[in-house]
């Protein structure tokens, strides 16, 4: 239990700094360049651990497996994380962080069509609460200074497409294992980004100096590498549903870090939005735990879980 708590705290802490360091990094490096570099470093950092996992489980890859991981890498790095970087640069770090945290709800939406995990009224309610939380967070009629409609669009698009990436990962995780397919898909996605940089005439390594090399290292090795490593370590000593508490903690931690590091302000409507997203994430997390421990509950039982969750949180 102590190991699990430590792994979750390290992973959630690192993930919660992501938007702040990416916002700072975006002031020094091109968005496409920064995205490629951080996933190249992160994927390379994870690969020795993935290789050990491959040997341990005697994983054998087919051509379809490589194509699947390539598709995952393109969806994650070339689409979702590019949207994410644009979202961070065109809105507050706290806003981008909280919006991105609803990606597990979009995962369950895509998983309905791609896996045996089907939608029910409770999951749809969780998604609805999460979307309502976004509306409160951004307050579209009176946006806070620093937030823009374009930044919100990019952040939502990133959450949706990362949900697709996660659903794709669920279709193969039992055979390929999470750490393995994450590392390889990161490296493949970064490899695809290289010709994109050349075509768009973006810098590849220029702009990286002694002044920002530590920041680049932190983004790539610590946030993308160590963050995911401890997430998968938490999964090893528990299960996927319990490890996903990492993403439940982030909506609470990331805005605090943004306020402290970037001196951002969060208004009352933003606090309500964060609270709603936490409630939606909690409902989604609880149904995941019920599914992975048992037992996929029938709709009437899952609805009881939802009702109890609402009562517990006094909504």
How does this model look, in words?
- The chain has 315 residues and is mainly α.
- It has one domain (2-312).
- It is built from 15 helices and no strands.
- It has helices at residues 2-16, 18-25, 31-57, 63-89, 93-100, 103-114, 121-138, 149-170, 173-176, 178-199, 213-237, 240-243, 245-262, 268-294, 299-312.
- α2 runs antiparallel to α11 (213-237), α5 (93-100) packs parallel to α8 (149-170) and α14 (268-294) packs antiparallel against α15 (299-312).
- It is globular and about 55 Å long.
- This is DMT family transporter.
- It comes from Anoxybacterium hadale.
Number of strands: 0
Number of helices: 15
The radius of gyration over CA amounts to: 19 Å
Low-confidence residue ranges: 295-303
Structural class: mainly alpha
C-alpha geometry: globular
Head-to-tail CA distance between termini: 31 Å
Order of helices and strands: HHHHHHHHHHHHHHH
Total domains, how many?
Answer: 1
Work out the helicity level.
over 70%
Overall mean pLDDT stands at: 88
Largest sheet: none
Taken as a percent bin, the fraction of beta residues is under 5%
């Amino acid at each position: 239990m102590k190991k699990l708590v430590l792994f979750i705290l390290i992973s959630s802490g690192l993930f919660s700094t992501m938007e702040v360091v990416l916002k700072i990094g975006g002031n020094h490096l091109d968005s496409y360049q920064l995205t490629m570099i951080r996933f190249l470093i992160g994927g390379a950092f994870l690969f020795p651990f993935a290789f050990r996992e491959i040997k341990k489980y005697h994983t054998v890859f087919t051509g379809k497996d490589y194509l699947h991981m390539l598709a995952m890498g393109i969806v994650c790095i070339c689409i979702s994380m590019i949207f994410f970087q644009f979202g961070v640069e065109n809105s507050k770090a706290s806003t981008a962080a909280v919006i991105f945290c609803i990606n597990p709800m979009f995962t369950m939406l895509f998983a309905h069509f791609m896996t045996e995990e089907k939608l029910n009224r409770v999951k749809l309610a969780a998604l609805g609460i999460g979307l309502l939380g976004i509306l409160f967070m951004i307050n579209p009629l009176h946006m806070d200074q620093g937030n823009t409609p374009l930044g919100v669009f990019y952040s939502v698009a990133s959450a949706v497409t990362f949900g697709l990436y996660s659903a794709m990962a669920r279709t193969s995780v039992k055979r390929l294992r999470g750490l393995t397919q994450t590392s390889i898909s990161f490296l493949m996605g970064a490899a695809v980004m290289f010709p994109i940089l050349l075509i768009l005439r973006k810098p590849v390594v220029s702009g990286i100096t002694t002044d920002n090399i530590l920041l680049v290292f932190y983004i790539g090795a610590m946030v993308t590498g160590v963050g995911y490593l401890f997430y998968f370590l938490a999964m090893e000593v528990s299960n996927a549903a319990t490890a996903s508490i990492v993403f439940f903690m982030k909506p609470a931690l990331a805005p605090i870090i943004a306020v402290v590091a970037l001196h951002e302000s969060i208004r009352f409507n933003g606090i309500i939005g964060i609270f709603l997203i936490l409630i939606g994430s909690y409902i989604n997390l609880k149904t995941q735990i019920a599914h992975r421990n048992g037992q996929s509950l029938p709709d009437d039982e899952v609805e009881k879980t939802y009702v109890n969750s609402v009562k517990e949180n006094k909504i």
